[in-house]
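TEACHING EXERCISE
Course module: macromolecular assemblies
Task: Read the component lines below, then compare them to the predicted structure of the full complex.
Student: A.B.
Group: 4
Components provided:
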Amino acid sequence: MVLPIITEPNPLLRQKAKPVKKITKRIKKLAQNMLETMYAADGVGLAGPQVGVVERIIVIDVGEGPIILINPEIVSAVGQARDVEGCLSVPGRNGYVTRADKVKVAGVNLEGRQVELVGEGLLARAFQHEIDHLEGILFIDYLSPAAGGEGS
Ligand code: NI
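Instructor-supplied answer key:
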């Protein structure tokens, strides 16, 4: 089921998301719906708050298959990369954001198992962008007109 995506300035996007305590049927259904919603919107990532569920769940697909991660945390980050970013919750805007080029992310999968994933390039960027959503941070927070940061 495709869910409505909430957009700026909806205050739900600015809340700190709550940890998921248990992988319930509801969480599994939510993850499935979030993936469907992301694909329908032609996005590469989506976080719980973007569908109005302020809980720590993200889905990503940068073209290498779907990733669903519960309670994700960045455990290490190296390098720097500057590239254009956008967000389904901030339609019509994009801009250059500097992020780590490679990250290791820990979290729980839908089977309730602890997993570690490594992402580079676009996948690293997606992890950082989606985990930011769980802290109420949007990519536009990094854009600085004075630094010439914003794209068209
Ligand atoms: Ni986003």
